[in-house]
């Protein structure tokens, strides 16, 4: 009897300890959820997020929620099942299809473009491999960087084969395989190759090989003509107010950026990548392997791979991630294979500080300190300029970047947008002040000199316009717009 009583006592004690651990883990999880919710509420109130978020820990969803509106005119709220355009997150799905075709022996990663697209420029196609397209090391110029591209070409539907002619004969920026240069052109070509090898449309191959097998019922190719329940509209933030995003026909981003999905479906995608369902283990090792240095990290096949900080601590962890951007939408999927956390941020309010928000969420998950995204200097300075003039705006800029630098940050794209807002309103001299501040903040950027040159040109200051366009082209010899403007100005 004594032995039985002892066993019973031990069992009871073990049960109590197990319950205490479970309660403690639950309390910690709830604390994290509350912290994430508080963070997301704050960035939404600050006008820095309008979309949906999902956070998983150890493979299980701990938080998912929508913020702001899927349709601002009709006040339709964003939800976890709202469908957002993904932009360049599309590239990881294109890469997966290519690897799947390689598994099936239908193409080779070291095969040349001309092996699969005989009609493509022999000059370039015979030099570039599938691997180089996948890793952005082909040297093919990025078609979205072409002068006036969005203004002149983005609205009209095109056939994939026809569109490749836009960049097929362009001079390569460097010898294939020697450098990284992000190129939508390369991933567009991969989509055309997928169609040629399979004999099926790209979106059909996606459905059959990824979305249907994984149960991703709310994901697909975003054909504008299709009626999609819970589809988010795209908006841009014109510094301080939202406007409807410019229309882009989705045949333009195609296999480089035309997909839509939800945070819930991207969670299914994340979980599947820990199995052999979409790809074999050998193919996944290739996809996630750092292939070529890229912007402080490395690029694999459709993913950035590298170290990321845990919050604002000095500790870092290996991550696999990719962002996306297409008119009106900004997205981020962020994976940490070691412990299986996942952060998905889908935003339909233009450009947003998604990486800063993600870093803060990562800090919460790992119990490390984190910082909130800083408020916009550009938004505050534009408001002051419109209300009280350039002198007031200039004084506020100095204050916010000096005494209040802990709370405010200068972003090049936001300052540029503020300058163009003033330019469009006919306030050319005020726009010049904003553009000059941007040049001072980002003196190594070709784009800021290009914008200042445009403002001087609008103001009739030919010599100053030439000076700034020359600086822009010096910093970026591939700035075709700057080269064209210089020719015109010099011939006046």
Describe what this molecule looks like in 3D:
With 492 residues, the chain is of the alpha+beta class. The chain has 2 domains: 279 residues, 3-Layer(aba) Sandwich (Beta-lactamase), CATH 3.40.710; 116 residues, Tetratricopeptide repeat domain (Serine Threonine Protein Phosphatase 5, Tetratricopeptide repeat, Alpha Horseshoe), CATH 1.25.40.10. 47% of the residues lie in helices and 15% in strands. It contains 20 helices and 17 strands. Strands 2-1-15-14-13-12-11-10 form an 8-stranded antiparallel beta sheet, sandwiched between helices. Strand 14 and strand 15 form a beta hairpin. Helix 14 packs parallel to helix 16. The longest helix has 44 residues. The radius of gyration is 25 Å and the shape is globular. About 2% of the residues have low confidence.
What is the strand tally? 17
Question: What's the architecture of the largest domain in CATH terms?
Answer: 3-Layer(aba) Sandwich
Uncertain runs with pLDDT below 50, 5 residues or more?
Answer: 18-27
**What class do helices, strands and sheet pairing give?**
alpha+beta
What is the share of helical residues?
Answer: 40-55%
- Beta-strand share of residues: 15-25%
> What kind of sheet is the major sheet?
8 strands, antiparallel
Summarize the structure.
By secondary structure, the protein is α+β, with helices and mostly antiparallel strands. It is built from 20 helices and 17 strands. The strands form five sheets. It has an eight-stranded antiparallel β-sheet with strand order 2-1-15-14-13-12-11-10, with helices on both faces.
């Amino acid at each position: 009897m004594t032995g039985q009583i002892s066993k019973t006592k031990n069992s009871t004690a073990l049960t109590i300890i197990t319950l205490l651990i479970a309660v403690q883990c639950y309390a910690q999880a709830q604390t994290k959820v509350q912290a994430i919710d508080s963070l997301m509420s704050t960035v939404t109130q600050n006008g820095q997020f309008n979309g949906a978020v999902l956070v998983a820990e150890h493979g299980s969803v701990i938080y998912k929620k929508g913020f702001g509106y899927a349709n601002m005119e009709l006040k339709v709220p964003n939800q976890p099942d709202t469908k957002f355009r993904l932009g360049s997150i599309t590239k990881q799905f294109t890469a997966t299809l290519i690897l799947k075709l390689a598994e099936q022996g239908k193409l080779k990663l070291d095969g040349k473009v001309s092996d699969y697209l005989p009609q493509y420029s022999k000059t370039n196609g015979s030099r570039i491999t599938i691997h180089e397209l996948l890793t952005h090391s082909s040297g093919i110029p990025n078609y979205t960087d072409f002068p006036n591209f969005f203004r002149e070409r983005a609205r009209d539907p095109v056939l994939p084969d026809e569109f490749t002619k836009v960049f097929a004969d362009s001079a390569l920026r460097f010898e294939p395989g020697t450098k990284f240069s992000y190129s939508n052109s390369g991933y567009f070509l991969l989509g055309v190759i997928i169609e040629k090898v399979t004999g099926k449309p790209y979106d059909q191959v996606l459905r059959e090989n990824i979305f249907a097998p994984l149960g991703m019922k709310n994901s697909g190719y975003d054909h504008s003509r299709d009626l999609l329940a819970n589809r988010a509209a795209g908006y841009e933030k014109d510094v301080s107010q939202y406007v409807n995003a410019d229309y882009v026909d989705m045949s333009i981003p195609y296999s480089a950026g035309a997909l839509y999905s939800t945070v819930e479906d991207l969670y299914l995608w994340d979980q599947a990548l820990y199995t052999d369902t979409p790809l074999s283990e050998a193919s996944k090792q290739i996809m996630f392997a750092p292939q070529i240095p890229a912007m402080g990290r490395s690029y694999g096949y459709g993913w950035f791979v590298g170290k990321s900080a845990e919050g604002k601590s000095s500790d870092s962890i290996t991550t696999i991630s990719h962002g996306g951007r297409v008119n009106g939408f900004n997205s981020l999927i962020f994976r940490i294979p070691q412990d299986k956390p996942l952060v998905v941020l889908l935003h339909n309010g233009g450009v947003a500080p998604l990486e800063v928000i993600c870093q803060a969420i990562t800090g919460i998950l790992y119990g490390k300190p984190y910082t909130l995204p800083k408020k916009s200097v550009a938004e505050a300075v534009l408001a002051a300029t419109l209300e009280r003039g350039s002198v007031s705006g200039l004084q506020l800029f100095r204050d916010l970047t000096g005494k209040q630098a802990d709370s405010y940050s200068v972003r090049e794209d936001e300052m540029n947008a503020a300058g163009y807002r003033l330019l469009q309103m006919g306030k050319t001299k005020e726009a010049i002040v904003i553009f000059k501040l941007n040049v001072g903040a980002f003196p190594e950027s070709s784009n800021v000199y290009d914008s200042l040159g445009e403002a001087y040109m609008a103001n009739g200051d030919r010599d100053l316009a030439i000076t700034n366009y020359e600086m822009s082209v010096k910093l970026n010899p591939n700035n075709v717009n700057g080269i064209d403007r210089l020719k015109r100005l010099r011939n006046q």
